[in-house]
Amino acid sequence: MTRDELPRLFCSVSLLTNFEDVCDYLDWEVGVHGIRIEFINEKGSKRTATYLPEVAKEQGWDHIQTIDSLLRKGGYKAPITNEFRKTIKLTRYRSEKMTLSYAEYLAHRQHHHFQNGIGHPLPPYNHYS
């Protein structure tokens, strides 16, 4: 990343909440819930994988496509059958995503600096120095 790219920088953080273990791997809503799966791979090792709530919706996936993609993400290499999907332990959760632009960060940093009683402006943040 170059200094010229900083004005176009955005940073997002997702706060994950409301974790619920469910009995049915289809018991979640695309675009509403993030999901974390736990499964035993073909070598007998426990594996996990997760997608945030927006992933399936952004990709245009349904429940099965999302589960199958997560299995591959988690390293499952064997053929995926409906019987295998039923062995998955699924946890659904919700997420609150916060996004801040670099300009918003600088404004917040400047405001916070003045609130703390320091009367001069901060120099621009420069981690290159």
UniProtKB/TrEMBL annotation:
Positions of the AMMECR1 domain: 1-109
Q: Which SUPFAM superfamilies match?
A: AMMECR1-like (SSF143447)
Q: Highest taxon of the source? A: Eukaryota
One GO cellular component, as annotated? nucleus
Q: Name one Pfam family in it.
A: AMMECR1
Give the matching InterPro entries.
AMMECR1, AMMECR1_dom_sf, AMMECR1_domain
Q: What is the protein's given name?
A: AMMECR1 domain-containing protein
Source taxonomy lineage? Eukaryota, Metazoa, Chordata, Craniata, Vertebrata
